[in-house]
Amino acid sequence: MKKPYIKKITTVSKFNVFFVDGKYVRDRLSEEFTNFGQHFGFRFIPKNEFWIDRARTPGEEKFFVDHMLVENRLMAEGMGYDDALARADRAEMKERRKTEYLKKGIRPRRKKSEYILKIHKKLLKRYSTSKIQVWIVDGEMVRDLYFIDFTEGGHDKVYKFVPPGEVWLDDDLQLKEIKYVLIHEVHERRLMAQGWPYFKAHRSASHIEYHCRHHPAELDKTLQKEIDKNR
Q: pLDDT tens across 128-176, in order?
């Protein structure tokens, strides 16, 4: 199959659902593409297709399809993206509450902070300092417990559920994507720690991520500088 297509997963209603190379999409089409997308969110996706980024930890595809079915239908009827996203999020969360996590002892009445040790999967010592810790985390668990739209990464300056001084990277990321997402997160975090509003810091982080994706020889040096500047 031609890029960015990797594999057709299934057909749901009138939609063909494909695994795609997310890095290729972010490099060539839109750096805003995350775990999945449909035509009304990304016009380059054909109207009869749903795209899902190739997963390193498969199992969430059914939730993403449920989400896109609702989002696509509402936007096709004329609803704005933000409202359609909120409705789709609620539908997706309803299904997530039926997942294996609930069978493993997770209960809504327990303090969510009790699950941090389960969410932490691997500390990336190479990118961690005395000021920040970079963790690979269980992204599905974060979406189930805290924020359904958590994708790729995040940090304590945006998400209150992230412990102080931590940067989280979704375990669903492809290995070749980790540094690009990390440079976005640490740059954004540094600016927000200096008092920048989120939208401005995010725009700056998207710019530096885009630059590094198109100038990969500069990535390692630029990333290390951003990590060293984080406080």
A: 999 999 999 999 889 888 888 898 999 999 999 999 999 999 998 888 8
**Side-chain half-sphere of 206: how many Cα atoms within 13 Å?**
12
- Residue 189 near residue 230 (C-beta atoms within 8 A): yes
Count the residues in the chain.
231
pLDDT in tens, 23-34: 999 999 999 998
Per DSSP, helices labelled H in 77-158 are 81-96, 100-103, 116-119, 139-145
Q: What is the pLDDT of residue 147?
A: 87
Q: How does DSSP assign 51-84, residue by residue? A: EEEPPSS---HHHHHHHHHHHHHHHHTT--HHHH
Gap between the Cα atoms of 123 and 207, Å rounded: 27
